[in-house]
Amino acid sequence: MNPFSMLIKSISKAAADSTYKPGVLQPWVDEIENKVATDGKFTKLQVLYLPFSVPPAFWDYKCKKCRFWEEPDGCTVVEGKISPQGWCAIWLPPEDYEPFTWPKELLKGNW
Questions:
Q1: What distance in Å separates the CA atoms of residue 74 and residue 64, rounded to the nearest whole number?
Q2: Which of 24, 50, 62, 90 is 20 to 30 A from 79, comparing alpha carbons?
Q3: How many percent of the chain have pLDDT more than 70?
Q4: Among 56, 50, 51, 52, which Cα is nearest to 106's?
């Protein structure tokens, strides 16, 4: 999988799922999890992993807020130690995530 196409797919499916087309995200989640079950976890390079989110102070899409996050510093789909403040191309919101919550979190100081 091309990391840039994964990024576009993740962003578009997450946005559609949370707004006008609920349910569209799950097949993408299944595809990612099936790939990991078959081939093993993605490398950090394959998913453009960064140990910080971009831009760091204003972005809610951090690894610790991803559906694949594993406490304290892991990921179910990306290999190696993962920073809670990190980000990658297949970041997806948790199932209970409310869209566009990052401005509220920023105002509360929870970023």
A1: 9
A2: 24
A3: 84
A4: 56
Query: What's the whole-number average pLDDT of the chain?
Result: 87
The H or E element that residue 93 is part of is none
CA distances from 99 to 9, 58, 68, 108 (A): 17, 15, 17, 16
Tokens 């998913």, residue located:
47
Indicate the angle between helix axes 3-18 and 26-39, nearest 10 degrees: 140
56 pLDDT band (50/70/90 cuts)? low
Q: Are 31 and 56 in contact (CB under 8 A)?
A: no
